[in-house]
Amino acid sequence: MKLHYKKLGEGQPLIILHGLFGSLDNWQTHGKKLAEYFEVYLVDQRNHGKSGWSEDFNYDFMADDLNEFIEEHNLEDVILIGHSMGGKTIMRYAQKYPEKIEKMIVVDMGVKSYPIHHDQIIEGLKSIDLEVVDSRSEARKMLSKYVENESIRQFLLKNLYWVDKGKLGWKINIPVLERELPVITEALPQKESLIDVLFVSGGQSNYVIPEDYDSIRKYFPLADFHVIDRAGHWIHAEAPQEFMEEVLGYCLR
Asked: Is 233 in the active site?
C-alpha cells in the first residue's frame, strides 16, 4: 500500500511512524527540528491519516508497507522512529528487513503482548454518529462521556475532517481498528534482530518497565534503554525537550 507522507530537510533518511489513532500530524514539531539534521519522512500508516484503508491490518502488513515505501524512495541506511503501535511496526520491520536500517528508536513500546485497553476509546468514537453530528464541539461533548482526559480527547478528535460543508468524516478506519485490537496488542514473533536500537520509555508509563529489558534483548541483543521519568506514554508530547535531546544524541553519534 502506498502511504501518505510529508518530507522535510536533507541528509540521511529518517522515518517516523505514529501510534494507534494517530497520524503524521502528531510529529510535525519534532519532524521540523530533526529536519535540521536529516531528511525526515513523516508517514501515515494504513487505516490512519491520509493513507489508504484496508481490511488487512497487522504488523506484517504494516512492515511490508514500510518496506514498499523505503524501496519506492530508494532509501538506504535508514533511521526509524516509531511510537507505540508505530514502534511495533518498526520492530517487525527490523525482523523482516534488517539490511535497510542503520538504527532505530522505539518510543514507549515493548515486544510483549498487552491487555486490550482501548475499547473505551473505540466505544467513544463509535458514539459519534457523523450522520447526525455536524460540529467538532458536539463531537467533543459526546466523546467526553467516554474519555475523561482532555488531551486525549483533543488527540482523538484530530481524526475528524470536513468531507464537505457541514459533513464530518473520520481519518481512521474505526471498524477495522476495533476488530483488530487483539492483533494490535499482541506480542512480536520471537526472532532476533541485530539492529542498534534505543528504547525510550516514560517513567509514568507501564508499557516498558525494567523487568522487560531481558526479554527485549532476546529480540534485540544490541538494545539500549532510556527512561524519561516525568513522562507517560506520550513522551514526545509530555517531555518534548528531553525527548528531542535523547533522540538527537542517539541519532547523531
From this structure: yes
Annotated active-site residue in 30, 48, 83, 233: 233
- 117 given a catalytic annotation: no
User: In this structure, which long-range contacts are made by residues 25-29, counting pairs with CB atoms below 8 Å and at least 24 apart in sequence?
Assistant: 25/49, 25/158, 26/155, 26/158, 26/237, 27/83, 27/236, 29/240
Identify the active-site residue in 23, 84, 201, 205.
84
Instruction: Give the whole-angstrom CA distance, residue 178 versus residue 206.
Output: 22
Domains by residue range for the chain, with CATH: 5-114+185-251 (3.40.50.1820), 119-174 (no CATH)
pLDDT tens for the 253 residues of the chain, in order:
999 999 999 999 999 999 999 999 999 999 999 999 999 999 999 999 999 999 999 999 999 999 999 999 999 999 999 999 999 999 999 999 999 999 999 999 999 999 988 889 999 999 999 999 989 999 999 999 999 888 899 999 999 999 988 899 999 999 999 999 999 999 999 999 999 999 999 999 999 999 999 999 999 999 999 999 999 999 999 999 999 999 999 999 9
Cell readout for 155 is: 488527540
